[in-house]
Amino acid sequence: MHAPSSSLFRLGHGYWGPISEDLRQELLFSYIGRAKDLIPTDFPVPEDDRLAIIVQAAMESRMLYFAAAMYEPSAKELDSFFDDFVMRAIGCNSLFAQEGDQ
Question: Residue ranges of the domains in the chain?
């Protein structure tokens, strides 16, 4: 089995299928909003183009990581992977310090 390309999206239960460009753009827009909500108010928000690249990379990395996983991830795991990727990519460590303190 070959690795999925960036035009494929995880549908669940180990199956992959093509998605339309419209849906891909809608997902990207939605996840850009999620990424902006993650960034603390005292931290500079990356420019829109840079943030879009980070979000695309987070979405594709998450897809590839869990495609290789030997189990079906929960929604919480998918969100956690995305959030962690975005925060590390923008250089904001405040969430990780809070996790480590608990």
Answer: 13-101
- Neighbour-count burial for 58-67, b at 16+ CB within 10 Å, e otherwise: bbeebbeeee
What is the spatial distance between Cα 32 and Cα 48, in angstroms, rounded to a whole number? 9
- Could you give the CA distance from residue 19 to residue 7 in angstroms, rounded to a whole number? 7
Please give the average pLDDT of every successive group of 10 residues along the chain, which has 102 residues. 46 56 86 92 89 93 86 88 93 56 43
The whole model's pTM is what? Answer: 0.72
The Cα–Cα gap between 89 and 80 comes to 14
As a whole number of angstroms, the distance between CA 11 and CA 16 comes to: 6
